[in-house]
Amino acid sequence: MPLHASLDAPDKPLDVTLPYIIAEVPADRVMSDLIAQIIEHHITAILITITKISEESIYQVQCLQELTAKL
Question: How far apart are CA 29 and CA 25, in angstroms?
C-alpha cells in the first residue's frame, strides 16, 4: 500500500500530497523534525569543513618540513 493511499489525493504526486501528510502530523513534531534535520545538515557541513582544513594544514606542515630539511 503506497504511503499516500489513505490520503485525500491518492493519485497525485508526492509534492501535492505532502500538505495532506503534514496535516496528519502535529505541527510541533513537523517543526522539531525539520529543525533537527537543518541542525544535522549544518553540523555535517561544519565537520566536513574542519576535516578539509585539517587535511590542508597537515599538508602545509609536511611541505614546510620538507623545505626546512632541504635548507
Answer: 7
Q: In this model, does residue 17 exceed pLDDT 80?
A: no
Q: How far apart are CA 29 and CA 36, in angstroms?
A: 10
* Percent of residues, the chain, with pLDDT higher than 90: 34
The gap from C-alpha 21 to its chain's centroid, in whole angstroms, comes to 22
d(CA 44, CA 34): 15
Q: With contact defined as beta carbons under 8 Å apart, do 17 and 9 qualify? A: yes
Show me where the domains of the chain are located.
Answer: 14-70
Q: Is the pLDDT of residue 15 over 80?
A: no
Report residue 40: phi and psi, to 5°.
-60, -40
Tell me which amino acid residue 69 is.
Answer: A
- State yes or no: pLDDT of 64 exceeds 90: yes
